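Please describe our next protein:
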Amino acid sequence: MKRQKRDRLDRAFSKGFQAGIGGRSKENCPYSTLDSRSQWLGGWREGVDGRLNGLFNK
């Protein structure tokens, strides 16, 4: 069970990261549960930071 939860949260982080790199708004977060939403937003923030710092080309 713990592995499934971790995988789900890792996937949420990854999807948020991709959204941040792609320039999507954080308001487009598809998750409603607190854990998944916070992971998605954390990934989104890192993706936006990376994009703004020039690490990724759109």
Summary: The first helix runs from residue 2 to 22. The chain is about 70% helix and 0% strand. The CA atoms of residues 16 and 44 lie 4 Å apart.
